[in-house]
Design goal:
alpha/beta; 7-stranded mixed β-sheet; 6 helices; 13 strands; about 30% strand; globular
C-alpha cells in the first residue's frame, strides 16, 4: 500500500503467525488453524499499531494453542517500519494473542477500554506479565473516541466486555474498519449485516439478532472490514472492486 504523504492514510496488514484452536473451542469435531493478524495505520500524525501478536510466558497456553509466532519487528520491517516508528498502540482486547508485542513498545501509549483493563488486572484473564510490564503506559477510554482526525476507537463488546474496534477514514473519504475479534470471521460480520438490513427493511420476524454497535460501525459506510483471526475481508456490496487497494 502507499506510504503516507500529504495526509494520506495507509493501512498495512501484519502477519504475526498462527495458532491451533482446539476442537473444544471450534464448535465442531476438528481443530482449526487461525492466523494472528495485526495492522499498522500510517497517518500524517504518526503510526498506530492495532494489536501486536501472540504473547509467550504460559506453558498451559503454549500446549493448548500450539502457536507459531512471527516477530513483530520482522512484520513491521516488511512494510518499511520499525518498533521505534510506532506512536500509539490500540489493542482490540487484552487476551495474550493480541498483546504479545506490547512489552517491546515501552513508553508508547496503549489505548484500551477501562472495563477491559480492569478485568485483565484481576488475574486469570490473560498472561499478566504482558499487561503491567515495566514501562507500560495505558490511556483508558470509557466510550468512543476520535484519536486523530479520521481515526476512531469504537467500543464493540461481545467477545469481551471491553472489546474495541478501530475505524480509519482514508484520504479518498472511504473508511475501513479494523474489527479485531468483534466477529471471528468475515462471513459472520456479513451475516449480521444482512440481518441488520433485513430488520431495517421491515422483513417479518423471526430474524437473527445482531450486536447494537453494528449500527455505529455501518454509519461510517466502510468499504472494507478486517479481522484479527481471518484473512478474508468483508467488502461493501456496492462500489469499486479492487483486490489490492
Amino acid at each position: 500500500m502507499t506510504q503516507r504523504k500529504n495526509g494520506t492514510v495507509a493501512v498495512h496488514r501484519l502477519d504475526l503467525g498462527s495458532f491451533v484452536r482446539p476442537a473444544s473451542e471450534t464448535g465442531g469435531p476438528h481443530p482449526r488453524v487461525e492466523p494472528v493478524l495485526a495492522y499498522l495505520v500510517e497517518h500524517e500524525r504518526g503510526r498506530i499499531l492495532f494489536d501486536s501478536g501472540i504473547g509467550a510466558g504460559d506453558a498451559g497456553a503454549e500446549a493448548h494453542y500450539r502457536p507459531r509466532r512471527r516477530s513483530l519487528e520482522g512484520a513491521l520491517a516488511a512494510v518499511g517500519a520499525a518498533l521505534e516508528d510506532v506512536d500509539l498502540v490500540v489493542n482490540c482486547h487484552l487476551h495474550f494473542d493480541h498483546i504479545g508485542g506490547n512489552p517491546l513498545l515501552t513508553g508508547v501509549p496503549i489505548l484500551v477500554q477501562e472495563t477491559e483493563l480492569a478485568v485483565a488486572r484481576r488475574g486469570g484473564y490473560t498472561i499478566d506479565a504482558l499487561v503491567d510490564f515495566p514501562g507500560a503506559v495505558y490511556e483508558e477510554l470509557a466510550e468512543e473516541a476520535e484519536l486523530w482526525p479520521g481515526v476512531w476507537v469504537v467500543p464493540t463488546p461481545g467477545h469481551t466486555d471491553g472489546h474495541q474496534s478501530l475505524v480509519v477514514r482514508q484520504r479518498d473519504g472511504t473508511a475501513v474498519v479494523l474489527a479485531g475479534q468483534a466477529h471471528d470471521f468475515a462471513s459472520h460480520f456479513a451475516s449480521d449485516e444482512l440481518a441488520r438490513r433485513a430488520a431495517l427493511d421491515g422483513v417479518a420476524q423471526p430474524l437473527p439478532s445482531y450486536r447494537p454497535w453494528l449500527d455505529r460501525l455501518v454509519a461510517f459506510d466502510p468499504r472494507r472490514v478486517f479481522f484479527a483471526h481471518d484473512c478474508s475481508v468483508w467488502e461493501s456490496a456496492s462500489g469499486r472492486v479492487s483486490p489490492s487497494r
